[in-house]
């Protein structure tokens, strides 16, 4: 299934319109000391290295990223929350710098209303929340700002979510949760055309849950919203291949291809150039005219 067959064909991100008629790439930039893959990579003495971040951001955009996702709070399994001020101190300088330096939609990865408002003022064009805007005040802030929203499913909280997650039917329960959060957003004044959904691979799911969601991702795409898939470098690759984080590129690319084939509109990845090659190949095959 192509994204355009079931989901909105575009998103209005502040002054930029993202075309989702074919899958696009979101590059990951975590401004945290403890994210599972790139934690601490962009910090010097606890603060963001803005020069290095700008170089990386420009390189990601040149390699094919349409969106850059910037987060100041780790949500890896077992992560502990950070204060609102810590999150602001981490991400605001980055938004201010990148909004001047690179031509891409800047996405905020946050659940905190004050951070959403501040990032929007500093150039954010999309809000991406692992808690689906359920934190007190988050939905009101998001609706007020008028940016596209990505609603993710997570069972539990980051510090507990991988402690024996259970479902009767993971697809049905994830879909039901997302439908409820979509309804809440629409009731708050968010247009349906500005909503993206994310099944939350690795967020309160076992290997079997993740594989089941990936295999049936087309059914989530059939809900009529763009689907974001974040599978890059995740532990399900280690469970299938035994590979450590730095050796998970082949697995990440295989998962990216499967997600795009099954209806994902946005791929959230660490390895932008390699994923862009995957999407070029997929699109070439899709565009072959057979007799």
User: Uncertain regions: pLDDT < 50 for 5+ in a row?
Assistant: none
CA-based gyration radius:
18 Å
Strand residues, percent: 15-25%
Alpha-beta classification: alpha/beta
Give the neighbour order of strands across the main sheet. Answer: 10-9-8-7-6-3-12-11
State the order of secondary-structure elements, H for helix, E for strand. Answer: HEEEEEHEHEHEHEHEHHEHHEH
User: Portion of residues in helices?
Assistant: 40-55%
Q: What is the overall pLDDT average?
A: 91
Question: Would you write up a description of this structure?
Answer:
The chain contains eleven helices and twelve strands. 41% of the residues lie in helices and 18% in strands. It starts with a helix and ends in a 5-residue tail after the last helix. Helix 10 (249-261) packs parallel to helix 11 (272-286). Strands 10-9-8-7-6-3-12-11 form an eight-stranded parallel sheet. A two-stranded antiparallel ribbon has the order 1-2. A two-stranded antiparallel ribbon has the order 4-5. The model has no long low-confidence stretch (mean pLDDT 91). A hairpin with a 2-residue loop joins strand 4 and strand 5.
Briefly characterize the structure.
With 291 residues, the protein is α/β, with parallel strands linked by helices. Helices cover 41% and strands 18% of the residues. The strands form three sheets. It has an eight-stranded parallel β-sheet.
Secondary structure elements and pairings:
Layout: H1 3-6, E1 10-13, E2 16-19, E3 24-30, E4 43-44, E5 47-48, H2 50-63, E6 65-71, H3 84-101, E7 105-109, H4 113-121, E8 124-129, H5 138-145, E9 149-152, H6 170-187, E10 195-198, H7 207-215, H8 217-221, E11 228-229, H9 235-241, H10 249-261, E12 266-269, H11 272-286
Helix pairs in contact: 2-3, 3-4, 4-5, 10-11
């Amino acid at each position: 299934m192509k994204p355009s067959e079931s989901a909105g064909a575009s998103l209005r991100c502040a002054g930029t319109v993202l075309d989702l008629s074919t899958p696009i790439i979101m590059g990951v930039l975590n401004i945290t000391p403890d994210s599972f893959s790139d934690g601490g990579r962009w910090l010097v003495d606890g603060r963001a290295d803005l020069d290095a971040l700008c170089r990386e951001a420009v390189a990601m955009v040149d390699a094919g990223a349409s969106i850059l996702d910037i987060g100041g709070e780790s949500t890896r399994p077992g992560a502990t929350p950070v204060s609102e001020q810590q999150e602001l101190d981490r991400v605001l300088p980055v938004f201010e710098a990148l909004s001047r330096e690179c031509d891409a939609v800047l996405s905020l990865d946050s659940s905190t209303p004050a951070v959403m408002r501040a990032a929007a003022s500093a150039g954010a064009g999309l809000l991406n929340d692992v808690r689906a805007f359920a934190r007190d005040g988050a939905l009101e802030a998001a609706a007020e700002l008028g940016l596209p929203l990505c609603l993710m499913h997570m069972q539990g909280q980051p510090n507990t979510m991988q402690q024996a997650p259970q479902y009767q039917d993971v697809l049905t329960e994830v879909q039901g949760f997302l439908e409820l959060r979509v309804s809440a957003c629409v009731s708050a004044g968010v247009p349906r055309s500005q909503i993206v959904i994310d099944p939350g691979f690795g967020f309160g799911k076992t290997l079997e849950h993740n594989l089941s969601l990936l295999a049936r991702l087309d059914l989530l795409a059939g809900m009529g919203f763009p689907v974001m898939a974040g599978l890059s470098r995740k532990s399900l690759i280690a469970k299938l291949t035994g590979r450590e984080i730095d050796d998970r590129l082949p697995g990440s690319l295989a998962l990216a291809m499967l997600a795009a084939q099954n209806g994902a509109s946005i791929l959230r990845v660490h390895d932008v150039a390699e994923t862009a090659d995957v999407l070029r190949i997929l699109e070439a095959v899709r565009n072959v005219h057979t007799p």
